[in-house]
Amino acid sequence: MAGNVSAPHSVALIGFGEVGQVLAADLGSRVVGAWDVKFSDPGSTPAVAASDARVRLARDAVDAARGATIVISAVTAAACTAAARSVAPAITQGTIYLDLNSVSPRTKIEAAEAIAEQGGRYVEAAVMSPILPRRVTAPILLGGPYAQSLLSTIQELGFSGAEMFSEILGQASAAKMCRSVMVKGIEALLTESLLAARRYRVEGAVLESLGGLLPAGEWTTLSRYMISRSLQHGRRRAEEMREVAQTVADAGIEPWMSRACAERQDWAASFGTEAREQTLEQLLDALLARIPATQGDSRC
Q: What letter does residue 287 receive in the DSSP assignment?
C-alpha cells in the first residue's frame, strides 16, 4: 500500500482491470472517479470491483476525469488511443496524463497528441514488471518532455519505483515492447513446448534440460505460473503483442515471432478456467483434454 501523500492531487482512473484495481486500493481517497467500458454492465468484474472498493463509478471517461489533476490510463492495448481521445474533453491546462498502457511508441505518440491538444501534460509510463506483487511501487520507466519535471510528483503520489528514462516520447515504451518480445514469447513457447511434451509423456526430460540450460529457478513452478498467466490474460497479452509487432516492424525488423506469439496468446485466452489447476501436470492435462490429438500417435 502507498504511504501518506502530501501532494494535493486528485486522481481519475481510466480502466479498472487488474492494474486499475491495484491503483484504486493503493492510492485510496485520492481517487475521485473511475471509468471502464465494462461499467455499462453492473455485473461485470470491473463494475463489481469498483463498487467493492467504494470508488465512484463515473458515467463515462469525461465524467471520471472532470476536476482531477492527474488522469491515469490503464486500459487494454487496443484501447489506448481511444481512451485518450475519450477523456480529452475533460483535460484542462496542466492536467497530468499518466499513460501506463503497454503499447508501441507510435500508439503512445497518437495518445499524447490527443492530450496535448487540450493543454494536458502527457507522460508515458512503461511498467517493467508484473503489477503484482509490488503494486504501485513496481519499476516504471517514464518518458516524454514532461517526465523529468513531473517525476517527483509521480513518486510522491506513491509510484516510488518510477524513474526518468528519456525525454524522447516513445523510447520508454520501446524498452517495454522489446522486453515483451521475450517475456510474452517465453509464455507462448512454454505453452506450446510443454503441451506437446506432455502429450508425448516427455515433459520431465524437457523441464530437467531447461534447468541446465537456463538457470532461471524451478522450471516446473515457473512454467505453471507463466502458462496460467497466458490463460488468464491471453486476450490482453495478444493485444500487447500486436503492439509489440508494430514496434518491431517500425524498427525495420520483420516481427515473425511477435505475430506468432499474439496468435498463441489469443488461443490461450479461450482456456481461462483451466488456470485454476494447482499443479503443472494438472494444468497441462486439463488443456489437453480439450485439444484432440488428431495427427499421428502421441503414444510413440
A: H
Report the alpha-carbon distance of residue 39 to residue 62 in Å, rounded: 14
- 11-169: CATH number: 3.40.50.720
Q: How many CB atoms lie within 10 A of CB 217?
A: 9
CA distance linking residue 242 with residue 77, whole number of Å: 9
Closest CA to 236 of 12, 13, 38: 38
All CATH 3.40.50.720 domain ranges in the chain, comma separated = 11-169
**Distance between CA atoms of 294 and 300, rounded to whole angstroms?**
14
**Res. 227: pLDDT tops 80:** yes
pLDDT band at 267 (very low <50, low <70, confident <90, very high): very high
Per residue in 149-191, pLDDT tens? 999 999 999 999 999 999 999 999 999 999 999 999 999 999 9
Tell me the pTM.
Answer: 0.90
Residue range(s) occupied by CATH 1.10.1040.10 in the chain? 176-288
CATH, domain range 176-288: 1.10.1040.10
**What confidence tens digit (pLDDT) does each residue in 122-134 have?**
999 999 999 999 9
Instruction: For CA atoms 270, 272, 274, 280, give the dihedral sign.
Output: positive
